[in-house]
Design a protein that fits this description.
Elements: H1 5-13, E1 14-16, E2 24-27, E3 31-35, H2 36-48, E4 58-62, H3 73-88, E5 91-93, H4 100-107, E6 114-117, E7 131-134, H5 137-144, E8 149-152, E9 155-162, H6 171-182, E10 190-195, H7 204-212, H8 214-217, E11 221-223, H9 228-236, E12 256-261, E13 268-270, E14 278-280, H10 281-284, E15 291-294, H11 302-312, E16 322-325, H12 330-338, H13 341-348, E17 351-352, E18 372-375, E19 391-394, H14 397-406, E20 435-436, E21 466-473, H15 480-483, H16 496-499, H17 511-516, E22 524-529, H18 541-548, E23 551-556, H19 561-569, E24 573-577, E25 591-594, H20 597-603, E26 606-611, E27 616-621, H21 626-634, H22 637-643
Parallel strand pairs: 3-4, 3-6, 4-5, 6-7, 9-10, 9-12, 10-11, 15-16, 15-18, 16-17, 18-19, 21-22, 22-23, 23-24
Antiparallel strand pairs: 1-2, 2-8, 5-20, 13-14, 21-25, 24-27, 25-26, 26-27
Helix pairs in contact: 2-3, 2-5, 6-7, 11-13, 11-14, 18-19
């Protein structure tokens, strides 16, 4: 039996376990990336574990999230990141160089390699033929130090592409269609492999848009073959020597095959407040739009922005609509400027923003009260934009540009103009001057630590018994944005004591204070949740800060992969209901108890939780590997690392 692409890469990097679906495996990681919102804690943990140098092929520290320096905190964190990079052998990408996923695709991504990143959209690298996986910062820190990354051997779904996209239909519409098919839940432990004759019609930037938003489906990674298009892209970046051919064997097998005819797709939009809430743009026509934002790691490539520039050339945006544009990298921005497209964008009335994540994470350009905002980003969770009652829609750049001109949702096929075809450059403008590459002489660099930078907190060992309160009960699809708000709060990411005061701020602002009252009393805090708990960002603070507040267990109908791993990394037990209907039995404020919890976690199997308020006994399970059980018992990965 032949192998698919994912099996080939995983087998080449397998160091522990057997590549059988459902088994835990340990992989060697070739490359890592971090960004400043998650990287500061990752490097603090790297130091706390006593690691002395980076042992990957390359590790890159990007500054792309918190470049708006209001107050001293972000500037101090950037100084810390730069000094850590110099000392430990990490490439540092300076503020303004661009968004980590796009820049990494341009300058470092290699077919056939593994990439682990402390950002959930790391799977963007699959567009170039990498197995690229998002993870918590501490997992990335371990990988940087030469340790293995552990995951469950995945099911592999083949997405068989046929046909060709019609004018005004884009890669964004392809991945929105995939979200309509697979939805945002139920895909834990799955990797997607795109194949079929339609693959050859898609460029690497288009492929990267598709793999980027695989994160919204909850899949571990998505990948395209490394073929002639991949070689062409790498040659245009001056990196042809990084190319290898990588295709599935003719007799490769898959756990599921999804057939998708590109010719049948039309412009789509994800409606509030989920990337999986898909409608045809034609069904939304006429809906007034107050704001348009073009950019993010999903849609800010050269092709994307030149297309927008050509649509807007010689026109003015609607007076009732504002337009912000953030190129994905300094490379793209410089090329737009040199080729005249930047002038076209400026002349149209667009506001040109930094090459950063910015508005995608609610750090800038928050919409007005109740405003409709069309964005080319990957997430439209409630409040993520910085305005809780904003109505955020996700679309392609073409749909966004049409709305900017007309002031309302407009099917771009109805604009009455010819679709602007964009040919990718034979050579991109390559300038690596905003990278600081590690040098031996810099290893004596003094680490810069501002007053906002604290030590990573540690959990205690799991006690013999858990007893305390159901401190919060929430519903389905609770995202890490719900748990740990970003935007202006991100500047406290290096100060867990302060950042923890904002846990569940937009759900129940009393949660942190109520948790703190139980600290030191011998009581423990529980969270009860519905399906797909922990969707969205990989931010480990969504586990780290609740741990600091004394949360010992989260009981949910189901968990998303990265967040479940992060909970374990910080010694919080992720428990699932054996009978999901038991979710209705527990109320917020109930007194809960798990007797002999250490023995139960160590043995595996059913864990009985007693609701002392109702008198009910609820059967739960902690679906953990032997390695993870050891971590929970020790109080988290940091404790395990220091015990070795």
């Amino acid at each position: 039996m032949g192998q698919n692409i994912i099996q080939k890469i995983l087998k080449a990097h397998l160091k522990e376990g057997e590549l059988v679906v459902g088994n835990e495996i340990g992989m060697r990681i070739d490359q890592t990336l971090t960004q400043d919102a998650t990287g500061t804690m990752a490097y603090l943990q790297f130091e706390a574990m006593g690691l002395s140098e980076v042992k990957t092929d390359i590790s890159v520290s990007y500054v792309d999230h918190n470049t708006v320096q209001v107050g001293f905190e972000n500037a101090d964190d950037h100084a810390y990141l730069q000094s850590v990079a110099a000392k430990y052998g990490i490439v540092f990408s300076r503020p303004g160089n661009g968004i980590c996923h796009q820049v990494h695709l341009e300058r470092f991504g290699k077919p056939g390699t593994t990439l682990l990143g402390s950002d959930s959209h790391t799977p963007t690298g699959g567009g170039i033929g990498q197995i690229a996986i998002g993870a918590g910062g501490i997992d990335v820190a371990v990988a940087m130090g030469g340790g293995l990354f552990y995951l469950i051997a995945p099911k592999v779904y083949k997405v068989n592409l046929t046909g060709e996209l019609k004018p005004w239909v884009t890669a964004k519409d392809v991945v929105l269609k995939m979200l309509e098919i697979l939805t945002t839940k139920g895909n834990v432990g799955v990797m997607l492999e795109y194949a079929g004759p339609g693959v050859t019609t898609l460029t690497v930037p288009e492929r990267a848009t598709i793999t980027n938003m695989g994160a919204e489906m909850g899949v571990t990674a998505s990948i395209f073959p490394s073929d002639g298009e991949t070689k062409k892209f790498l040659r245009s970046q001056g990196r042809e020597n990084d190319w290898i051919e990588l295709v599935a064997d003719d007799d490769a097998s898959y756990d599921r095959v999804i057939d998708l005819n590109l010719s049948e797709i039309e412009p789509l939009a994800a409606c509030p407040h989920s990337p999986g809430n898909i409608k045809k743009v034609s069904e939304l026509s006429g809906l007034k739009v107050g704001q348009v934002c073009v950019g993010s790691c999903t849609n800010s490539s050269y092709k994307d922005l030149v297309t927008v520039a050509k649509i807007l050339k010689g026109k003015k945006i609607n007076p009732a609509t504002s337009l912000g544009i953030a190129p994905g990298s300094r490379q793209v921005l410089a090329m737009l400027a040199r080729e005249g497209y930047l002038s076209d964008l400026i002349d149209s009335g667009a506001r040109i923003l930094e090459s950063t994540c910015g508005f995608c994470i609610g750090n800038s350009l928050s919409p007005g009260s109740g405003a409709v905002s069309i964005r080319t980003v990957n997430r439209n969770f409630e409040g993520r934009s910085g305005t809780k009652d904003a109505q955020v829609y996700l679309t392609s750049c073409e749909v966004a540009a049409a709305a900017a001109l007309t002031g309302e949702f407009t099917d771009p096929r109805k604009l009455g103009v010819e679709y602007p075809r964009v040919n990718l450059p034979e050579r991109y403008l390559v300038d690596d001057g905003m990278f600081i590459f590690p040098k031996g002489a810099l290893r004596e660099t003094k680490i810069m630590r501002g007053p906002n930078i604290g030590e990573p907190p540690r959990n205690e060992r799991l006690p013999e018994k858990l007893s305390g309160e159901a401190m919060l009960k929430v519903g389905d699809k609770i995202t890490t944005d719900h748990i740990m708000p970003a935007g202006p709060r991100l500047k406290y990411r290096s100060n867990v004591q302060k950042y923890a005061t904002f846990v569940f701020e937009n759900v129940d602002s009393t949660f942190p204070d109520r948790c703190m009252k139980s600290k030191g009393t011998g009581r423990h805090n529980f969270i009860v949740a519905g399906e797909s708990y922990g969707q969205g960002s990989s931010r480990e603070h969504a586990a780290l800060c609740p741990m600091y507040l004394g949360v010992k267990a989260v009981l949910a109908k189901s968990f998303e992969r990265i967040h479940a791993a992060n909970l374990v990394n910080f010694g919080i037990i992720p428990l699932t209901f054996e009978n999901p209907a038991d979710y209705d039995v527990i109320n917020q404020g109930d007194e809960l108890e798990i007797a002999d919890v250490r023995d139960l976690v160590a043995k595996g199997g059913t864990i009985n939780l007693s609701d002392k308020t109702t008198g009910k006994t609820i059967a739960c399970r902690a679906e953990l590997s032997e390695r993870q059980r050891g971590m929970v018992l020790a109080g988290g990965l940091l404790n395990c690392a220091n015990e070795r």
